Structure formats: C-alpha cells, structure tokens
Amino acid sequence: MAESAPRRLTVLGATGSIGQSTLDVVARHPDRFEVFALSAHRQHEKLLELCLQFSPQYAVMGEEAAADALARALQSAGSRTAVLCGEAALEDIAAAEPVDMVMAAIVGAAGLRPTLAAARAGKKVLLANKEALVLSGQLFMDAVKAGGATLLPIDSEHNAIFQALPANYARSPGAAGVRRVLLTASGGPFRTAALDSLAAVTPEQACAHPNWVMGRKISVDSATMMNKGLEVIEAHWLFGAPADIIEVVVHPQSVIHSMVDYADGSVIAQLGNPDMRTPIAHAMAWPERIDAGVRPLDLFEIARLDFERPDLERFPCLRLAFDALRAGGAGPAVLNAANEEAVAAFLDHRIGFLDIPAVIAACLERSGTQTVDSLDAVFAADACAREWARAEITQRTAYR
Ligand code: NAD
Ligand code: MG
Fold first, then answer.
1. Which atom of ligand 1 lies nearest, measured to the CA of 212?
2. Which of 20, 153, 298, 302 has the least CB density, counted as fewest CB within 10 Å?
C-alpha cells in the first residue's frame, strides 16, 4: 500500500500546555499529521506564531478584539489562514468534514460543546478536557457511540489504563477480568506540607507542581487533589468502572501512570517519564507507535518507587468527588462548576486555599438528586452551581 495521506487535525486550546505539546509531536511528524485548525481564547500573539508555523486553514479566537488583531497580523504576514470567532466556530472546526482527529484541550466546561460536536461527527477524539466528560458523563459517551467516534484518553492516567486494558475492552470490567483500576497520583506540592500551613499557601506555591508543568487551573486541582477526583469520575465513564473498583494510589515519583489489577493477580502498569507528549503521541498514532521526543526512562536514575494511601483529611476534594460520583445526577456537574469558580477565585487571591473544598462542599449540599438527561439540564446544573459558588465566595471574601 502507498504511504497514506497525513491525518488532518484540529487542536482546540492550541496555546495551552497540552496544545503546545500536541503541536510539538505534530512538528516531529509532518508526513503523518497536518493541522486543519487551531483555537485559542485570548492569546492572539501566541496563536499567530502557531499559525505561521503550521499554516492551518482556520484559526478560531474566543474574543472579537483578539480575532481582529490576529486576522490583521496574518494578512500582513501573507498567510492564507482564515480567522473565525466564537463558540459556534469552535464546533465547526471540530466537526468539519476534512478533519480526522480533534485534540480536545480547552480547559474547563467551555470545552464541552466543541468536544461533543467532534464526537457526534464521528471523529477520532483525543480527550484531554476531562471537565467536559465529568460534566456530561452519560450524554458524552452516548454521543461517542451514536457518532461512531473513537475516543482516546490523553490524561496520562487514563491513557495508561487504556494501554493496560485488553485491545477489545468494551467498558465492562467484570467481563475482562478487571478487579480494580489503580489510579496513581503524585500528591502534588503539598503532600507533606504541615497541615496548619495550608490556609496561607499562595497560588504561586500551589502551581509549583513537583513533576509536571501544566496550566494554572489543573495545577491548583493537583494541589487540592481535585484533579484526581475529576479523574476518578473520568475513569468511571471511560472504562465503565463503578466507584468501588477505582482506587487512588499516591505515588510521588509519577513514573507509573496508572495500573489495572486483574482477577488472576496480574497487575499491569504503564511507566514512563512524566511528559504529556507520551500519551499524546500514543493517542495520535494509535494503534501504531511513534517517536514523541520523550527521554527514555532511566530506572537506575529513579532507583525506587513509593506508594501511599491518600490522606482524605489533607485532601477533602478527593472525598467530595467520590461523593458526587456516588450521588450521580447533577452531582458531578455541580462539583465541577463549583470547583472551576473556586479555583478561579483562589488564583485571583479572593479566597484562600482551604476555602476551595469548603465552597464545593456547600454547593454539593444544595444540589438535589434530579437526573440530568439533556445538554440543557447539564448547562442548567452548571449555571446554578456557579451562582451558588459565587455567593459562597463573596461571603468568604467579606470575612478575609
Ligand atoms: P492551559 O490553561 O494551559 O490551556 C488552556 C487552553 O484552552 C488555552 O489554549 C486557552 O486559550 C483555551 N481556553 C481557555 N479558556 C477558554 C474558553 N473559555 N473558551 C475557549 N478556549 C479556552 O490548560 P492545559 O494545562 O493545557 O489543560 C487543558 C486541558 O487538558 C484541561 O482540561 C486539563 O485538565 C487537561 N489536562 C492537562 C494536562 C497537562 O499536563 N497540562 C494533563 C492532563 C489533562
Ligand atoms: Mg492526569
């Protein structure tokens, strides 16, 4: 067979940490991948650079002023990339006919609509945007099925689990002899910090992750371990795993990216240096394997691997996430929305670090057990939880 044509890719959230790592892999394999479209929210200068490097057909900005600035700059550079703006345009570049795969790397609930559009259009969906799945769970998985899409996890833990599961795995742990899904967690920057120091930690300290360089929101989520909580819910939907068989294992070196424990006693793990280009390249080339530019793992340099049980006193967000998953209904959507609002307020120095779990807990207490069986219901739960969270944040700000 002749060499196949390059796969056409849309990168949603191209200027972010995952977006940049994705484009790094693309640049290493110009024969395999071609960029169809790129998106960014506000950073038009950064997107300009990427457009000049990758010559996509379309670039989408979140804001008019930024879109205008990008269009002018591209025009004067003689580029043919067309600039679009807004949410509908994001859905268009995700679902456009020529597109083979979509990297869903927008942070937060804002990524849900375009990611769903890619799923409905039957694309190969590379899912980094875990919040989208947490928010819409069953609806998202239904859209993947109805659209005939291929869903590949980019989150390093879920990518590891995907690699450790049988190739024909059909979202039924029992049928595949899976006893437990072991989700590893680094424990973040505050794993061993004195408990009484946590109230005063700054956003800069929270964003200084020991092993990974990531966007600011997910870095704070790692510090509270809400990131692991969201990942528990993500694993539930991706792998059809009930909460009771998902176990979180703190593993400070971040070398084992997760494991699957089978009925016969076998535990299969995926290891590697903590570099997101590994799961990204894995998913982009799947089922083939390509160079990701990642340093080979040196086990002698690592020398030892440690494991600890998560401390739920220190990390109440992890317990809240399990509670929300078990509660079902609007629980996960409320958890996610309250967390997004609380983390934004913390990054903005409006509330303290320990206010984050307090705000989320207060919102979960107010949420009912109504089912969310439509996108409208999902967004209604999201909007309602954001209102509760903002009120809670305002009260806490008043006492600071
Ligand atoms: P980031 O903050 O570095 O980048 C976010 C991207 O989304 C940017 O391109 C930004 O322009 C865009 N964006 C932000 N708000 C938007 C909005 N309202 N509308 C449209 N676009 C918007 O984030 P990141 O670290 O790259 O993370 C992206 C996603 O991947 C998150 O869901 C995160 O949980 C997930 N993820 C990240 C990592 C990592 O190592 N960074 C690992 C696993 C999962
Ligand atoms: Mg992860």
1. 40
2. 298
